[in-house]
């Protein structure tokens, strides 16, 4: 049924049985007739197709007595996301209730990353991270220590029965070297994991799976 057929149906409707407009959600689109759950009902109703709605799509229905016709798929906010697409909301909404006969997977505790270096559907990352030794930036913990061999100074000379001959003051310090031996230092740090997330605001995210 196309727009022309729908216009004819509207123009030629029986005044004693006027057409009624209803809304519903497609439960099954695999047969020759759609199976639609009209708003306010729980059971499906066979509906004549007019277009190519998918399961979970919202449709406008014309009711001609006992015959139901799906005349249009509802777009805009009333239309559910396609299978594989996300539904992001800041409200407390369950898409299973908003769009009956659809199935959803709730995404929890994850950010969304555009594909590129990472393939679509892969997961990774962590909320907190403790640096391993290999991840610590290279740095030096060796103190500069100097040492020396110290000999006490004294005077030297000769003493005879009649004279005292004095010498000079011997060098008191010798063998001064820089000591390159490693010495342990006092440890610091707590080895605790750090928060690894950018600033964020939390929304409910659902992925339609059926």
UniProtKB/TrEMBL annotation:
Q: Name one Pfam family in it.
A: Gp10_C
Signal peptide residues on this chain, from the entry's feature table: none
Task: Show the SUPFAM superfamilies listed in the entry.
Answer: Receptor-binding domain of short tail fibre protein gp12
InterPro entries named in the record: Gp10_C (IPR053827)
Query: What highest taxon heads this organism's lineage?
Result: Bacteria
Q: Where is the Baseplate structural protein Gp10 C-terminal domain?
A: 83-209
Biased composition range(s): Polar residues: 176-195
Region annotation (Disordered) maps to: 176-196
Q: What is this protein called?
A: Baseplate structural protein Gp10 C-terminal domain-containing protein
Species of provenance: Gordonibacter pamelaeae 7-10-1-b
């Amino acid at each position: 049924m196309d727009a022309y057929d729908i216009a004819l149906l509207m123009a030629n409707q029986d005044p004693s049985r006027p057409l009624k407009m209803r809304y519903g959600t497609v439960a099954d689109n695999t047969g020759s007739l759609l199976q639609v759950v009209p708003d306010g009902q729980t059971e499906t109703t066979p509906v004549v197709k007019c277009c190519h709605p998918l399961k979970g799509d919202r449709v406008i229905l014309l009711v001609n007595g006992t015959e139901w016709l799906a005349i249009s798929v509802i777009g805009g906010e009333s239309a559910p996301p396609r299978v594989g697409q996300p539904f992001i909301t800041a409200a407390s909404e369950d898409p299973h209730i908003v769009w009956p006969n659809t199935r959803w997977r709730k995404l929890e505790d994850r950010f969304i990353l555009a594909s590129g270096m990472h393939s679509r559907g892969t997961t990774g990352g962590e909320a907190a991270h403790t640096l391993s030794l290999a991840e610590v930036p290279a740095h030096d913990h060796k103190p500069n220590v100097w040492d020396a061999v110290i000999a006490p100074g004294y005077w030297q000379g000769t003493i005879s029965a009649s004279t005292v001959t004095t010498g000079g003051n011997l060098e008191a310090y010798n063998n001064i070297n820089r000591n390159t031996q490693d010495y342990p230092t006092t440890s610091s740090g707590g080895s605790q994991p750090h928060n690894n997330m950018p600033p964020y605001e939390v929304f409910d995210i659902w992925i339609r799976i059926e």
